[in-house]
Amino acid sequence: MNANPIGVFDSGIGGTSIWKEINMLLPHENTIYLADSANAPYGPKGKEAIINLSIKNTEYLINKGCKLIVVACNTATTNAISLLRKNYQIPFIGIEPAIKPAALNSKTKAVGILATKGTLSSELFNTTTSLYAHGLTVVEQVGEGLVELIEMGKIDSEETKTLLKMYLKPMLDANIDYLVLGCTHYPYLMPLLLELLPKHVKIIDSGEAVARQTKAVLEKNDLLNSSISNPKNQFFTNGNPEILKAILENGFEVNYLDF
Ligand code: DGL
What is the pLDDT of residues 216-228, one digit of tens each? Predict the structure, then answer.
């Protein structure tokens, strides 16, 4: 079991921002990345559709022998992870907007959250927010259209910049000093965000924390890969393999999957 792969899925290419952190922290692990790009974006879909897609992705990865699954998608985590944990035996690691550190550290008592509609409307997100952001101004913004642009590879286009500028405006008007990235596609917007945000606004993304949690859970379950010989990293997409390949930046082979 220890040599079995870690499965990672997302609605598309965004979860590679998490995969990169996992691969950096756990370079000896075998991995399988699944990009359900043909069904992206998940954000505007209802809870039931998000659950069904998450089940489909999970079963694909379990059939491939995955020992643990990382749900590298805030939208799938906040809507489906409790059900996945109930229905399947293997451990699941999820990602959700890191509202807690932002709320605890904010000096201006105003934080911004950029996420999908599916995440912002989820029960899990709203419970966490009311728990930790009590008494703070929380400016929630749906990043409508951003996932689609990133999926098309238009990461630093004028179109993306214009949308982002519009979404950040109400946050800056509210004097935020923390911006929480609540979607795994958004770390790829970092160069634009740094250009558009004043220096004192800190950006929080939870990729590294997810990798640390993955390691901790593997350790706890005695599932770390003991072999240090060439790990196998496999990438599958039902979208455009070239776009996934480009975002991975390191020449990995990407397989098209009719899925
Ligand atoms: N990467 C997904 C997330 O973290 C994007 C969701 C979508 O496809 O809308 O939420």
Answer: 999 999 999 988 7
Instruction: Write out the DSSP string of 107-122.
Output: SSSEEEEEE-HHHHTS
| CATH architecture entry for 6-95+207-256 | 3-Layer(aba) Sandwich (3.40)
For the four alpha carbons of 210, 104, 75 and 245, in that order, the dihedral sign comes to negative
pLDDT tens sequence across 21-60:
999 999 999 999 999 999 999 999 999 999 999 999 999 9
Report the distance separating Cα 68 and Cα 4, nearest Å: 9
66: annotated active-site residue = no
Mutate-to-test residue for ligand 1 from 75, 148, 210, highest number of ligand atoms within 8 A of CB? 75
Question: Is this prediction's pTM over 0.85?
Answer: yes
Q: Do domains 6-95+207-256 and 99-204 have the same CATH topology?
A: yes
**What residues are in contact with ligand 1 under a 6 Å CB criterion?**
10-12, 14-15, 40-43, 73-75, 116, 119, 147, 183-185
Measure the CA–CA gap between 2 and 89, rounded to whole angstroms. 15
Tokens matching residue 51: 């659950």
Q: What pLDDT score was predicted for residue 184?
A: 98
Tell me yes or no: is domain 99-204 CATH 3.40.50.1860. yes
Q: Is 183 among the catalytic positions?
A: yes
Per-domain residue ranges of the chain: 6-95+207-256, 99-204
Query: Residue 166 has which token pair?
Result: 């519009």
